[in-house]
Amino acid sequence: MTTKSSTTLRNEILELIGSNPGGHLNAEICSTLGTKLQAYADSPDADPSDVLFAIGSSVYGVAITIPPPKVATTTSSSNGATTTTAEEEDVPIVDFEYMRQFMKDVFLAYGCTEEQADTSAEVLIEADKRGIDSHGLGRLKPIYCDRIDKGILWANKPITVLKETKTTALVDGNLGLGLYIGPHCMDLAIKKAKEFGVGFVVSQNSTHYGIAGYYATMATQKGCIGFTGTNARPSIAPTFGVEPMLGTNPLTFGMPTSDPFPFVIDCATSVNQRGKIEKYARSNEPTPRGAVIDDAGIERTDTHGILRDMVLGKCALTPVGGAGDAMAGYKGYGWATVVELLSTAFQSGPFGEAVCGLDRKTGLPKPMPLGHFFLAIDVEAICPLDTFKANAGNLLGALRESKKSPNGPGRIWTAGEMENDARLARSAQGGMKVLKVLQQNMIDLREQHPSLKEKYGKLIFES
Questions:
Q1: 290 — alpha (psi -120 to 50), left (phi > 0) or beta?
Q2: Angle value at C-alpha 441, between 437 and 445, nearest 5 degrees
Q3: How many other C-beta atoms can be found within 10 angstroms of the C-beta atom of residue 101?
């Protein structure tokens, strides 16, 4: 009997899930998935941290015996006694430039132009440099490549300017790569701001545009204040509601300062994002109360049940402040609505169920036409840039030097500082860690495209 490789088994699982959107409701498919998942778990190169195990458990309800993380051992002798010590398996560190070039080559393999591929790779690698691993290499295959493969996102589409004035513009992304549409729009807003003091650009028919903080930072690098946001598939329920209606809708600002890094706040308007709940599932932790509400109005903490019911549309995330009004959840609800309005009202764009990414009648994936907005304000139209930077730096410095909690870490951060810390630390270590599941994504992409197979016959982490 021929034993299938880990890669083959993993691809079969992905194919089974992808071709059966409602499979979690089919006992036969759940059973088949369970068998394949266990075979994958028992294979020699299975990654115990692979998110497929969490999906199998929380969404399909299959019980899998997951192998413990592989360990390396070191043996030492002292006074005739031999000691064997187990150590965690090393995760390879890959140079940023190598990873950026790989991602660029992937986009080129999908038919992007040189400019589209270069810009898109830059947005993704910037996330990894800032320590925002959820939006860098980790998004390359599942969010962009897989969606291109499914025909709900297109690699090479023109950007059409529908309407333009000296200070504003409305553009159509034609369902191309949001990673390219976003930088194009913020660059246009900055150019208008540098000439007329302010620039505001909105886009329609775009797709996932990566970390919103990238665009705010584009503005700060040009001496501007940046403001951006985007809608997303419905996840947040309104205060006192239970139906997912609003995206996790980041509200993002950037300001230049005298610090070595700008002030950039980039965060969702929900208490938690789905990725955080998946992380709780992998570590078998409960979800904090108030972060999720189900259709019966119950604030849920059972993480695996939450993930299952989110797929079924029976659970929703709560806005910043949590469910109800006890902790002012209506504030987060209001801010999420602001982003949704600015992302749809100018563009007559879809929202809610229309951007869920799934055709409820057929169960097939469908495009998610998102809207974004980009505002740039030229600081020097109002005051000297150095004055603004100094004033901002003084305030931020005072915050960091204020009295610390005796129960805290002994340090106060300001927005953008943790990302700068991550950049410095990762640069010092020589790049970014690439977990096994991401290595497998890279291998799968290479095997899918002849041009990648030719250039990357052996990836940097392959022995």
A1: left
A2: 170
A3: 16
Q: Name the token pair of 52.
A: 């497929």
Rounded to whole angstroms, the Cα distance separating 90 from 93 reads 9
Beta strands at 198-206 and 168-172: parallel, antiparallel or unpaired: parallel
Q: What are 387's two structure tokens?
A: 């004055």
Nearest to 308 by CA among 55, 38, 33: 55
pLDDT averaged over 10-residue windows placed end to end, the chain, 463 residues: 71 74 69 83 72 65 63 50 50 96 98 98 97 91 95 96 98 98 98 98 98 98 98 95 95 97 96 82 84 94 88 89 93 98 97 89 91 98 98 98 95 97 96 93 97 96 88
Q: What share of the chain is helix, strand, coil (3-state, %, to 5)?
A: 45, 15, 40
**Closest CA relative to residue 341, chosen from 365, 372, 320, 319:** 372
How many residues make up the chain in this entry?
463
| Three-class DSSP category at 91 | coil
Residue 403: CB atoms within 10 A of its CB come to 6
pTM, 2 dp: 0.83
